[in-house]
Amino acid sequence: MLQRPWCTRNTLSSKPPFALACSCNTAEDFSKILKAKGCSDPEKLVPELEKEVERRQHVHEERRRHQLYVAEEYSRFHPKIFTLQSSFLDPRFCEMVSHARKPDCTADDLKAYMKGLQMRMYSFPVFTPSFCQMFVEELKHYETSSIPKFQAASMSKFAIDLGVLGFDQFLSDLRTAYLAPLVKVLYPDWGGDQLDTHKAFIAQYKEGRNLDTSYHFDNSEVTLNVSLNETFDDGDLYFGAMRGEESSFHTGYSHQLGRGILHRGQQMHGAFPIMEGERYNLIVWLRSSRIRNQLCPMCNEKPKIKAVENGFGDGFTLDDNTV
Ligand SMILES: [Fe+2]
Predict the structure, then answer these.
(1) Rounded to the nearest whole angstrom, what is the distance from the C-alpha of residue 217 to the centroid of ligand 1?
(2) CATH number of the domain within which 194 lies
(3) CA-CA distance, 235 to 275, in Å (whole number)?
(4) Does the keyword Cell membrane apply (predicted)?
């Protein structure tokens, strides 16, 4: 029997199915799972999967060490942007969020502030152009600094982990004060008002860089993707159906400076390569332990988890609420 190519990010690959090796998995039964998925020689893949589980389970400690190092050694270019201020936000976004905070607000009430795309995707202005400019300047300053860069599990080689760079509080404030009220109205079934963690990074695209922009789903309940600059050509996003759904649905989305698109993490999507210039996008994976504790969004199994110190980990919670 021919070995089946694995569908890891909905693209065919000869690599082992690393979605199985997510940090919620204790790697007890890989052989059995692989067999059930049609793998003819699971024993070949098990050691690699076990190694990946081990790496993912310890990446949080490594990340924390790196975060402390950056806090000590990195000199910030725009120190003021590390604390969220309402002046960084587009006034229309602030107005929409104050509407969303009203107890009886419905998705229809927010229509005037956003472009309702298909499949429950929404696009709206988030940041002012001047904030975007400062943000990108800070990112370039960090990139060209001598600080060794941290590569998080599951992130592209060219992604910048914003928690490591020092934006943890900024992003927690953005999540709790602004994004949570919107998600409560727009996605009550995907975390609603119980978004308790996030993972945020900058996706950076440059011509000629070997980026993984293939069709995939996110490790999030809801994702916000905001464009921070305009100096690129092409690079549009494309969206399809929800993961696992049989549907021919597809649609495109073009970036605009400071504007964000909000979508469900399990909605399949990808990005076309850029033809010229460079692109910086803020990606915020919003997570709700209430949802993911039932079923891990990556491996589709009931998570078996270990406590993570100093950080959100992958957003699961133990009984005592440690994540
Ligand atoms: Fe994504």
Answers:
(1) 6
(2) 2.60.120.620
(3) 7
(4) no
The residue range of the domain holding 280 is 77-292
Report CA(316)–ligand 1 centroid distance (Å): 19
Tell me how far apart the alpha carbons of residues 229 and 298 are, in angstroms, rounded to a whole number. Answer: 30
**Tens of pLDDT along 194-227?**
888 999 999 888 766 645 578 889 989 999 999 9
In this structure, are residues 26 and 304 in contact, taking their beta carbons and an 8 Å threshold? yes
Domain count, the chain: 1
Judge whether 83 lies within some domain. yes
- Give the pLDDT of residue 152: 63
State how far the Cα of 214 lies from the Cα of 152, in Å rounded to an integer: 18
Residues 229-251: pLDDT tens digits?
Answer: 987 777 889 999 999 888 888 89
Question: 218 alpha carbon to ligand 1 midpoint, in Å?
Answer: 5
Residue 240 lies in a domain: yes
Q: How far is CA 265 from CA 142, 145, 297, in A?
A: 28, 32, 9
Q: What is the pLDDT of residues 110-168, one digit of tens each?
A: 989 998 778 899 999 999 999 999 999 999 999 999 998 877 655 566 789 999 999 99
Asked if residue 128 is part of any domain, the answer here is yes
In this prediction the pTM is 0.82
**Bridge partners of 156?**
none
